[in-house]
Each structure stands twice: as structure tokens, then as C-alpha cells.
Specification:
By secondary structure, the protein is of the alpha+beta class. Helices cover about 55% and strands about 15% of the residues. It is built from 13 helices and ten strands. The chain has a six-stranded mixed β-barrel with strand order 2-3-8-5-7-6. A hairpin with a 2-residue loop joins strand 6 and strand 7. Helix 1 crosses helix 11, helix 2 runs antiparallel to helix 9 and helix 9 packs parallel to helix 12. The chain is elongated and about 100 Å long. The mean pLDDT is about 85.
């Protein structure tokens, strides 16, 4: 054991001395490993951060909610067929609500984009959602201040609004939004509630943080002629286990309301988060495959470069190897020495890449969320070490099997 430790120490010292004597060459050799490790760690932190943000945002919408809509979120239905579908209106909502027995809550939703203002501060083209008081029951919203609007405020089409956290930060940087009067378009609305941050930038216009929620009657009263198309009916099942049963009932009711025959296709869509999550997973999967390909290519190029440099190093130090063998160094000692040298080069390159990835993650976090993963850090160190061992194996074996007499004669 003590002999092994001695060989390890000697081999490490020789490896470090060899690297120090060829600093520029060693740095250039590390570049491939540096780039590969930087890419894989940065990619994993970015994907994990986006994934966390997506999961937070999607959970705010509720996993047991169905969205009955004219449009399909995803699918292979031609756009013109969707466009020609009949709009869903408030009569459809009222009849659906009367006929449905299984849902926990049913709410109509109508969207319009409006400029939200308070004094000199404004948010352009914010998503303004109109609904009833049951809407909050179809979400997992939580409130930083105030509440959602009530049945009385909803049925009376009062000018009250609930604003998302990003809207609140922009209009009220000091956090004093409650009971203030904002302008939605050209109309005054009293802020009765402010949501806690719960959305995700990846949800785009569906991100609740950048939305305003008002009674649906005010949408019809002030904005209907501007953007009215079709409402969406949000349906929340009593629990996730009843989602499919609720969906079957919703489909049956909608087909009855539309007067569809048995052989006719649905002229509406029932969207749910599962489709959104599947689509998200497919996109992330493609990004991961592309990232792994780039990382693998960088590591392969880096490993080839290290192997090449190690062969050059063996040639340059052939006489040194001969002397060491002549005074008693064993094959395994020489093998170990060159393996250590290639491993140290890869490990230093990998650690430098790791540091660069962490610094870049902090920079990227200003634009999209990132989350540093400890398993990615451990994997990066392991991959660096493994690359060093694999790329140094052939040169180390070549050095170890050199005949000491031939090595001493080498010029």
C-alpha cells in the first residue's frame, strides 16, 4: 500500500512537472474538455431551471382542469378546420353548467389584450382575462394581497381587477397595489387582489404573472367589439382520479349542445395539461439530445487531442523512460505515470469548464431561470477523469512496453 502511494505521489509530481513545462500546449489540449464540460453543465442547469419554472407554472393552472375550446392546443387538425368551427358563447357555458354534474367548478374565460396603466407606469399588451368568481376554483392561485373578485362583483360586472405579480411589480414597485385604481384600456378598475409569483415565462401568454383578471361582464361591456372570438370553458374535476370521467361527461354534453350525430366528429376541443406537458417534454428531449451530441463531439475531439499530445510526450521523453526503466522502474509505474498525466490534464480542463459553466449560469439566470445540479457537477468531474484515462491509455501502454535499451538509444 505504501509502495502504491509512493508511486502515486511520484507519478503525480512528474505529471505536474511535465504539464508546467508545456503550459501553452497543455492549455490548448484542455480546450476540448473545457468546452464539453461547460456545455453539458450549462445545459443541465438551464434545462433544470426551465423545468422547475414550467412545473411551477403548470401547477398554478391545475392538473385536473379541462379546457373546452374552439381551438386545439396540439394535434393534427388542419388550422382552417379549427377556424371554421362554431364559437363557444355564454349560452353554451350556461347550458353546460346546468347539465354537468361531475365538475367541482365551471368557469367561462374570455381573453383580450389591453394596456394596463397606473400613473406614468404601464404594461403594454397584457393578457386580460374575463371570467366569473368560480374561475379561481379552476386554478391553484395564491394571493400576496387581497382576494379574487366575488360572485356579487362578477354578476354585477363591477370594475374590479386581480393582477399578476409581474404586473404588480411594474405598476407598483413599492408593493402598494391593493385598493389602487388602475386603467385597463381606457377604463378604471379597482385592484382587489394581487397574485403571488406562480407563473412561468415558458408559458408565454398563459403565464399568470403577466395577466389581469376581471369579471367577464366588463370584458363584454368595454372590450367585446375589439377582440371577441370564442370563450373557453374551464372545467375542474373533483379530484385527479375523476378527470377522465369528467372529460367523458363534458364531451357528451358538448356533443349534445352542438347537435352532433354519432358519426360526426367533435367541432370543439377538450384540452388538458397532459398535452402541454407532453409537448414540453418532446421539446426538452430534442434539446437534451442536441446538447449531448455537442458535448459528446467536444469530448471526443478533446480526447483525440489529448491522445495525440500524450503520444508526442512519450516520444519526447523516451530517453527519460529508458533511464527510469534502467534504474528499476516497472511497466506499471510508467503506465501509471502517463495515465496520471492525461487524467490531470482532463481533470483541470473539466474543473475549469465547471467554473465557467457556473459563472455563465449566473449570467444566463438574468434572462431565463437556471438551477445548478450537484449530480451534474459530479458527472462532469467523473466524465473528465474517464476521458483522461481513456485518451491516455494507448500512449501510456506504448511508453510502458518500451525496451529500456532501445529507449536509451533513442535520439
Amino acid at each position: 500500500m505504501s509502495n502504491f502511494l509512493f508511486e502515486l505521489k511520484e507519478g503525480l509530481l512528474i505529471a505536474l512537472r511535465a504539464i508546467r513545462s508545456n503550459k501553452v500546449r497543455a492549455i490548448l489540449t484542455m480546450l476540448g474538455i473545457f468546452i464539453g464540460i461547460t456545455v453539458v453543465v450549462l445545459m443541465s442547469t438551464a434545462i433544470k431551471g426551465i423545468d422547475n419554472s414550467f412545473q411551477n407554472g403548470i401547477s398554478a393552472l391545475g392538473s385536473d382542469v379541462l379546457y373546452i375550446d374552439k381551438w386545439a392546443w396540439f394535434g393534427n387538425v388542419d388550422w382552417w378546420k379549427l377556424r371554421n368551427r362554431k364559437n363557444l358563447d355564454m349560452d353554451d357555458f350556461q347550458k353546460f353548467k346546468e347539465m354537468a354534474n361531475l365538475p367541482l367548478a365551471v368557469a367561462p374565460v374570455l381573453n383580450t389584450q389591453q394596456t394596463i396603466k397606473f400613473g406614468d407606469r404601464r404594461v403594454e399588451s397584457a393578457n386580460c382575462n374575463g371570467s366569473n368568481a368560480d374561475y379561481v376554483m379552476t386554478t391553484n392561485f395564491s394571493f400576496a394581497q387581497g382576494r379574487f373578485y366575488s360572485d356579487i362583483e362578477s354578476e354585477g360586472s363591477r370594475n374590479v381587477a386581480v393582477i399578476g405579480s409581474e404586473i404588480a411589480k411594474t405598476l407598483f414597485p413599492l408593493g402598494d397595489a391593493l385598493d389602487k385604481t388602475i386603467k385597463v384600456g381606457a377604463q378604471n378598475f379597482k385592484v382587489v387582489g394581487v397574485l403571488t409569483e406562480q407563473g412561468s415565462f415558458i408559458l408565454g401568454p398563459w403565464n399568470p404573472d403577466n395577466q389581469v383578471f376581471v369579471p367577464i361582464g366588463t370584458i363584454f361591456k368595454y372590450f367585446m367589439n375589439e377582440t371577441f372570438g370564442s370563450i373557453t370553458i374551464n372545467v375542474r374535476a373533483q379530484n385527479p382520479a375523476m378527470l377522465e370521467e369528467t372529460k367523458a361527461e363534458a364531451e357528451g354534453i358538448m356533443r349534445k349542445l352542438r347537435g352532433l350525430k354519432y358519426s360526426e366528429e367533435n367541432d370543439f376541443s377538450i384540452n388538458q395539461q397532459e398535452g402541454l406537458v407532453d409537448n414540453y417534454n418532446q421539446v426538452v428531449g430534442v434539446i437534451q439530445i442536441a446538447g449531448l451530441f455537442i458535448t459528446g463531439l467536444s469530448l471526443f475531439v478533446g480526447a483525440i487531442g489529448i491522445m495525440n499530445i500524450m503520444f508526442v510526450s512519450v516520444k519526447e521523453r523516451t530517453k527519460e523512460i529508458g533511464i527510469r526503466k534502467a534504474i528499476g522502474a516497472k511497466r506499471r509505474t510508467i503506465l501509471f505515470q502517463f495515465l496520471l498525466e492525461s487524467s490531470v490534464i482532463c481533470l483541470v480542463g473539466g474543473l475549469a469548464g465547471l467554473i465557467a459553466a457556473v459563472l455563465l449560469s449566473m449570467l444566463v439566470d438574468q434572462f431565463i431561470p437556471t438551477s445548478i445540479q450537484y449530480d451534474a457537477v459530479i458527472l462532469a468531474i467523473f466524465v473528465s477523469l474517464l476521458t483522461g484515462i481513456i485518451s491516455g491509455l494507448a500512449p501510456a501502454y506504448t511508453a510502458a512496453k518500451l525496451d529500456p535499451v532501445e529507449a536509451l538509444r533513442y535520439e
